[in-house]
Amino acid sequence: MSNTELVERLERLERDNRRLKGFAIAALALAVALTTIYATQPVPQRVTAHEFDVVDSSGRARVSMGMALGEPSVSLSDAQGKVRAEMSIGPSGGPSICLTDAEGQPRVSMGIASRNVFISIYDAAGNGRASMGFSPSGGPVIGVSDAQDKSAIAMGLNPEGELGLTFQAAKDRASVDIHVAPSGSPRIEFLDQQGFRMVLGSAQTVTARTGETQQASTASIIMFGNDREHHVIWKAP
């Protein structure tokens, strides 16, 4: 190799080195500039969108926020993608929370409907079996029922302070009611499928001829007919 060729190669190497140094300096300057821009960029005060999804490491949505039938909703899903908890606002404006099992059946729900608070518990088939809330009159009520929502037991307290326990039959309207009045007077009422009623304990009766109201004592037994006025057909004493 001649001296001329050696000199030419050295010059090319020097030019390449200068070019690489220029690229390195430019890249460093760009990195510094980007870092400065993102470091000084303000955090947004509000983000507006129709839906949001939070995904796990596999890309599966685990938290979803959006609008369902025109109302806001938030749902949480398990690792298999099944919704297990949901919080939403109903069309009437009442909020509710529903928890489901691995099969997708609702098992527990709670919320506010028509200004009344409620908690409901469902069986594995999704049938409501137990509930706690307030009656239309505003008194607290606890109830349990069979899978067909026919046989039921209800316990409650009305706004006047009367305690009540009711057993309702499945195939007809027969029932047993146990009540304790605010004054402390107890009574037990039996109603059969034909509409006849019997009361043990304190009860009020109305004389059909005069319209006079009478209060029976706790030691009384009164039987009522199944006619529209439920006239007294027998009583003692």
Write structural notes for this entry.
It is built from 1 helix and 18 strands. Strands 1-2-3-4-5-6-7-8-9-10-11-12-13-14-17-18 form a 16-stranded antiparallel β-sheet, with no helix packed on it. It has a two-stranded antiparallel ribbon with strand order 15-16. The protein has 237 residues and is α+β, with helices and mostly antiparallel strands.
Question: What distance lies between the first and last C-alpha atoms, to the nearest angstrom?
Answer: 139 Å
The coarse overall form would be: elongated
Main sheet strand line-up: 1-2-3-4-5-6-7-8-9-10-11-12-13-14-17-18
The tally of helices reads 1
Largest sheet: 16 strands, antiparallel
Beta-strand residue fraction: 35-45%
Mean pLDDT: 82
Radius of gyration: 38 Å
What is the structure about, briefly put?
The chain is built from one helix and 18 strands. It is of the alpha+beta class.
Write the layout of secondary structure elements.
Blueprint: H1 3-40, E1 52-55, E2 61-68, E3 71-77, E4 83-89, E5 95-100, E6 106-113, E7 116-122, E8 128-134, E9 140-145, E10 152-157, E11 163-168, E12 175-180, E13 186-191, E14 197-201, E15 203-206, E16 213-216, E17 221-224, E18 232-236
Antiparallel strand pairs: 1-2, 2-3, 3-4, 4-5, 5-6, 6-7, 7-8, 8-9, 9-10, 10-11, 11-12, 12-13, 13-14, 14-17, 15-16, 17-18
